[in-house]
Write a structure and sequence with these properties.
10 helices; four-stranded parallel beta sheet; binds aspartic acid; alpha/beta; Rossmann fold; 2 domains
């Protein structure tokens, strides 16, 4: 009797593939333009998840994909309610024994915000990988299919577990906390300024060269909520008035993030308005409009006296996400809030 000798392919086939849930939300990766040379005049979020998958031959060899259309939007229109729906859906999927990881396709415009929100609010150590595209699906050299293939490759990798939410884009793997969009048009549109990417993915290989140190996912007390506290952003610039801050306070906002100049410095007029807002119980967080570096807490010199919190390395948009989550979870006192910004 002949004993069958396992071949490399038959033994690989015997191993069950990782089961990855794909949540499509729209964006340019699901965008369509009138012709293939058109990379700017397109409509985002019009191509369905089945078509996204059909454009990526070979995906089925990497993972068993369970796909669903979570939304079909241009991510410039991302809404707080959709954040909550998305976070809840990711948590539900990852709680299932038959799901090993989640991939989310998203628009590039607010990807850095959604990624950080999920990084803090998802409660699982299983991989969650987001991706996107700068060119619509209809374009010559569309970047979406390879980005999707790479995102699934990362999500299927055991090395991606326990790293919070990752962003796989243009072959690099970024931490959701650090990644930002840095180009309005280039295919290499995402960076993690100062800190750099965590690793890379190419041709089926996933390599991490560092890990995120700050607590995320299961190690945070944060959760997406049904009713978000209102947190807005104002900027400091030459000749800025206090009109916006006064209007926000009158509207009853719970928090304001200021996109300050340089190291989070604020025009004296705006600073006065913000200090008055802080005295009325509005949480004020100082971030910077610069785009890289950190905003140092200047304690006794002014933050403590003015009632401000400093955002550290978070840009204003990410600082807004953390402030909203902290306020929603019940942390509003300034020293406790500073602790939140120093920790997460
Ligand atoms: N406006 C698009 C979006 O964010 C841009 C993109 O995906 O590149 O949905």
């Amino acid at each position: 009797m002949n004993t069958p000798v396992p071949t490399p392919s038959s033994s690989a086939a015997a191993r069950p593939l990782p089961r990855i849930a794909l949540l499509a939300t729209g964006g340019t990766i699901a965008g369509a333009a009138p012709d293939a040379a058109n990379t700017a005049g397109y409509q985002a979020g019009v191509i369905g998840v089945a078509q996204l998958l059909a454009a990526v031959p070979g995906l089925g060899a990497i993972a068993d994909i369970q796909a669903e259309q979570a939304a079909s939007i241009d991510s410039k229109d991302m809404a707080l309610a959709l954040w909550t729906t998305l976070a809840q859906r990711v948590n539900t999927l990852l709680a299932q024994d038959d799901i090993d990881g989640v991939v989310i396709t998203h628009g590039t415009d607010t990807l850095e915000e959604t990624a950080y929100l999920l990084h803090l609010a998802v409660k699982s150590a299983k991989p969650v990988v987001m991706t996107a595209a700068m060119r619509p699906a209809s374009a010559l050299s569309a970047d979406g299919p390879l980005n999707l293939l790479n995102a699934v490759t990362v999500a299927a990798s055991p090395a991606a577990a326990g790293q919070g939410v990752l962003v796989a884009f243009n072959n690099r793997i970024h931490c959701a906390r650090d990644v930002v969009k840095v180009s309005t048009y280039a295919v290499d549109a995402f960076q993690s300024p100062e800190i750099g990417a965590l690793g890379w993915v190419q041709d089926g290989r996933v390599e991490f060269q560092r890990r995120a140190l700050r607590p995320h996912t299961v190690a945070t007390p944060f959760a997406a909520v049904e009713r978000w506290p209102q947190v807005e952003i104002v900027a400091s610039y030459a000749g800025v008035s206090r009109v916006a801050v006064d209007a926000l306070v009158a509207a009853g906002v719970r928090g304001i993030v200021v996109a300050g100049t340089g190291n989070g410095s604020i025009h004296a007029t705006l600073q006065q308005a913000l200090a008055e807002a802080a005295a009325q119980g509005v949480a004020i967080v100082r971030a910077s409009r610069v785009g890289s570096g950190h905003v140092m807490h200047n304690g006794a010199a002014s933050d403590d006296a003015l009632g401000f919190v400093s955002a550290g390395t978070l840009n204003p948009y990410k600082a807004r996400v953390l402030l909203a989550l902290a306020l929603a979870q019940g942390t509003a006192e300034r020293v406790a809030l500073q602790g939140v910004f120093d920790r997460y």
